[in-house]
Automatic annotation (TrEMBL):
A molecular function GO annotation: metal ion transmembrane transporter activity
Chief location category: membrane
Keyword Membrane belongs to the record: yes
Membrane topology qualifier: Multi-pass membrane protein
Compartments in which it is found: Membrane
Protein name in the entry: Magnesium transporter CorA family protein
GO cellular component: membrane
Length: 256
């Protein structure tokens, strides 16, 4: 195989992703990955001619063994698996925090950043899966590639499950925040309902007018005070009864 000027110009594009293509009659596989261990991007180009595999090194295609080729793909897959394991550990910690009844500080910002990283890994896996399937379709090494393609598919599925878990945590956090806000508004509404008649009573008897109701009655102040206490206690009792009726989810299950 020859790396001509056209192919060199094409490969000079820094935005190339993992792909398999037929470039001017030459079967080319580009593997663009990121190693979490070395913190570096790995860019490899392979060519296929009959049953021979070539790797592009110093602008020349050199023969490359099948085992080394498979090892290169396994290394990329292993990096993707490590990324998935890292994401799963993060999600597990967040789930444990929520199960303990605590909230996560700056969750929505952190989850957005985490989702970007997960989607990036998902994109790399999807491109790798597509490229390997296309390559295996025309390659005499299809049998050797089949286990790796299967492993890539499993890792890809795992990545999608991680995104689903993150979305569920996101929905749960939104629900918890909404519930807390609703509880606060509900409590404020109860307070308003209790103190509204009290304010009316205080305002009514605070008027500086003649012939005020109960103005000449002995112990009238205590009567009004008793009425205020009665209204206050009635409101609190109603609130307490409603609170008791609101069973938690696990209580409903246990009472069945």
């Amino acid at each position: 195989m020859v790396c001509d000027e056209n192919l060199s110009k094409f490969l000079a594009n820094k935005n190339l992703n993992t792909l398999y293509m037929d470039f001017l009659g030459q079967k080319i596989l580009i593997l663009n990955s990121y190693s979490s261990k070395t913190k570096k991007a790995n860019f490899s180009v392979f060519g296929f001619e009959d049953d021979t595999i070539f790797k592009l090194e110093n602008a020349q295609f050199k023969p490359f063994s099948l085992n080394d080729f498979l090892s290169t793909i396994r290394a990329i897959l292993e990096d993707c698996k490590n990324e998935n394991a890292y994401f799963e550990r993060i999600l597990e910690r967040k789930e444990n925090i929520l199960l303990k009844g605590n909230l996560i500080k700056n969750f929505f910002k952190k989850s957005f950043i985490l989702k970007q990283k997960i989607n990036k890994n998902l994109k790399n896996l999807s491109l790798l899966d597509e490229a390997l399937n296309l390559s295996a379709g025309t390659s005499p090494h299809k049998k050797a590639l089949k286990p790796i393609i299967f492993a890539v598919g499993v890792t890809l599925k795992n990545n999608k499950e991680i995104i689903t878990r993150l979305n569920e945590i996101h929905l749960l956090m939104s629900a918890i925040k909404n519930e807390k806000m609703n509880q606060s508004l509900y409590f404020l509404s109860i307070l308003s309902a209790i103190f509204l008649p009290l304010n009316l009573i205080v305002g009514f008897f605070g008027m500086n007018t003649n012939d005020l109701f109960l103005s000449n009655v002995k112990h009238a102040t205590w009567y009004v005070f008793a009425l205020i206490c009665f209204i206050l206690l009635s409101g609190l009792i109603v609130y307490r009864k409603k609170r008791k009726k609101e069973l938690e989810f696990e209580d409903k299950i246990l009472n069945k």
